[in-house]
Specification:
Strand content: 5-15%
Structural class: alpha+beta
Mean pLDDT: 95
Distance between the termini: 27 Å
Largest sheet: 6 strands, mixed
Amino acid sequence: MSKAIFVNQIGYLVDGLKAGYVTAKAAEAADGTFVLKTPENQIVYTGKLGLPVEDRIAGAPYCCADFSDFIQSGKYILSVGDNDSYIFEIGEKIYESLYVSILRYFTLSRCGCTVNHPVFGHEPCHASVAEIYGEPGKTRNVLGGWHDAGDYGRYVVAGTKTVLDLLVAYKALQMKGDKESLNLFDILDETRFELEWLLQMQREDGAVYHKISTYHFCGFITPEADNEKIVLAPVSTAATADFAGCLAYASMYYKDIDSAFADKLLAAATKAQDYLFAHEDELYKNPPEIRTGEYGDRNVEDERFLAAAGLFAATGKEEYKKAAEEIWEKAHAVLNEGTICGNKHYFAGFGWGNVGAYGMEILIHSGRLAEDDPFRLKILESIMERAEQLMAKVNTASFGTSHEFVFWGSNGYVCDNAHILILAANFVDEEKRGEYYKAVQKQFNYILGCNPMGMCYVTGFGSESTKQPHHRPSGALKTLMPGMLAGGPAEGLVDPTIKEAYGGRNIAPLNCYLDHIHSYSSNEVAIYWNSPFVLLCACCM
């Protein structure tokens, strides 16, 4: 199949944005025209390609083929000259199986319990008692949680981001009145599994252990075969603050369906916040003996902000609002000097290491702040400023993506940026909202095939998709677990495998991807990349 045409390989909704992309060379050879045809070669639509657009990360000019005004359901091929795309569908409810699969990934990633599945099922794994690092002779039995990524560690900062994303997706479907999608998968049951594990990660004084894992990464074996010693890493401010904000926010989702559980979450969040009030920053760094994922963070003001925001939203207590506002003012005083983290907008992000936007979203939607509250207006201004910057990037990008740089986990970053646009769309007029959602759809299309690799980055979906993810169960069983979002291109060629494959060649950033099990910098999977994709899918269904 031609690598000259790139489409959403699953397809497009009848009444949504429908666009593919074509290399400028193919466009020129076809005099700038394209057609839609059926698999039986019947032409049903003729259109004019957009002008070539080139940017640094795509590395070559591409033209957009927009056929949004074609609204006939069916299966089609986008054709430019002698080049044909993969067959794709136009219709309704075409993303339901994708949506369920990317959520089922979490169920299949459960730890410490029996997982029932004909291929990826297993008996309880990682069920041994954990040593507490730095406290000789002390142990704790911690069960549950999701395996974090391609490895079997369980990390608080990653898990809390994931839960927050899934709860926001649940709320988005509620706000749309999409009961049908909500009934396809019980999101609150799945997030509860992770929350039950998070509760076990809290120390008696309110602090939260940073992670639980083996001392080293294991080989490509199944989870129940990993019998190495398990260790609880030291507590950290990042873990404690993320825990506080996440559990406080989650308590509001469960109060009407299980008030006792909601109360338990809020009590634990309050205890964690009390610890934060009483202690200076404890920044996490892996001890020499522990070599699993670090998830370190040298600035935790955004985590402290999330914690205070979550507690204020859940309780309405002024002490939490005051704490959130003080952190905000302090952080932005420094941000305005452009001296923190090298990124003026880290506070308005949805990554595991920059969680400020979660706090902003929680506060904006909580109803606790009056419409004219100066603090609310500042938050809203920050959200809209970041959204407009992303829109400017989307409107000038070769594939309509929000990338500025192609970092490790770039596909997750695309989804996190879409989250900002989804949030901002709540506060603009109808016309602007439509523009924002078109930009969101472009991020969705990028993941599913509208990218210069011509890849659908979700395992088990599309005509050409990720087949060799850096994922231990898939590698051990030599069978692909479906519904996993690959991390995606990462400029810099970080791991040895991709460096050997591409090193010395002039590769455009969006082509710095290798579908290889050992390319962990481009082809690993992670719960906190799947989770924002759940939100993106929920909003594009």
